[in-house]
Amino acid sequence: MTITRRRFVKLAGAALAAPALPRLAHAQAAWPTRPIRAMVPFSAGSSLDIVARIALDPLSSQLGQPVVIENRGGAGGTIGTAIVSKAEADGYTLLIQASAHSAAPAAYPNIAYDPVRDFSAVIPFGTVPNVTVVASDKGIKTLQELVAAAKRGSLTFGSAGTGSATHWAAERLRVAAGFEAVHVPFRGGPEALTEVMAGRVDFSCMGISSALAFIRDGKLTPLAVSTLKRSSALPDVPTTLEAGYPDSDYNFWMGMLVPSGTPRPIMDRLYQETEKALQLPAVTAKFAPQGIEPLPLKPAEFDALIKKEIDINLALVKTAGVKFN
After folding, report:
1. Does any domain span residue 245?
2. SS3 label, residue 302
3. What is the DSSP letter of 214?
4. Phi/psi at 244 (nearest 5 deg)?
5. Contact at 8 Å (CB) between 153 and 174?
6. Chain mean position to CA 126
7. Is the pTM higher than 0.90?
């Protein structure tokens, strides 16, 4: 009787536990069954925000659920990123980040999350050229003229926040060209550009997506782009390398990450559907005027890029004495 009872209890326990894995598998297979939050840790109208909206609109249709963008700017993208690091790893919270993600450990040694341990990279949307711009009424026409002015007296430069891609691109240029400049951080790119156009800040190394409209309106003068080759969006503007400043280029990528522990089937579907969305003619047509170039990386390759950049950025801060305020 005792043996029979024990066997009954064991079988009953197994029966209760058995449905757990199928239920989990079913939940992953059915994903998504409700709206998805996409955190953009910079202000609306920033380069990252613009690119995210272009990419996520068709993704919503493909997944059959709204992908709702939430802008939470500040501290170089670390505020919004920290929120996602604490979110459930269930596929319903995405992080839309940029190169600021791999610059964060160098800019913010005491951040409340680990960019590698707490996140899994899904897919890059592409790379966006940073363009060094000044107010058109300043009369500065070339990057060399800006550097000369900076060497005569300290200038200021605006960014989308300490440790943001716009900050990092300017620091790379400043170190390469050998001049001093005072960093003025803002909550996002649009705020920084407003101050540059008003003449209260001297220059900015801003993503083309944010700056292009003001360049076309004649309010900003583009001096150079930070990419290895000229941007198709500004073909007449030289690169910082062409202007004569070695090691001044900067890779401003944008892409999607999720909290670590997100089930692999969900990550795989996110990758596949986003890759499909990025190849749609409607998306590539909107990306082209922004100067966005493809960056075709698998999740593991994207993770490796982030780890590599973190090491490079930490080394640059140490050897070049870059200071973050």
Report:
1. no
2. helix
3. H
4. 105, 20
5. no
6. 10
7. no
Sheet containing 203-207: give its strands across.
181-185, 155-159, 203-207, 130-135, 220-225
The type of residue at 260 is S
Question: How many H helices and E strands in the chain?
Answer: 12, 10
Specify the amino acid at residue 139.
G
- Asked if 108 and 119 sit in the same domain, the reply is yes
CA–CA gap between residue 55 and residue 72 (Å, rounded): 19
Looking up residue 123, the CATH number of its domain turns out to be: 3.40.190.150
Q: Please check whether residue 107 is in contact with residue 77, taking contact to mean a CB–CB distance below 8 angstroms.
A: no
Q: How many domains does the chain have?
A: 2
Task: Read off the tokens for 222.
Answer: 């583009």
Q: At what angle do helices 100-107 and 165-177 cross, to 10 degrees?
A: 70
The pLDDT score that the predictor gives to residue 25 is 52
217-268 pLDDT, tens digit each: 999 999 999 999 999 899 999 999 999 999 999 989 999 999 999 999 999 9
Tell me the residue range of the domain where 307 lies: 33-127+251-320
| 215 and 290 together in one domain | no
Residue 235 lies in a domain: no
Cis peptide before 296 (omega within 30 of 0): no
194 contacts: CB under 8 Å, gap ≥ 6: none
Task: Return the structure tokens found at 55.
Answer: 């990419």
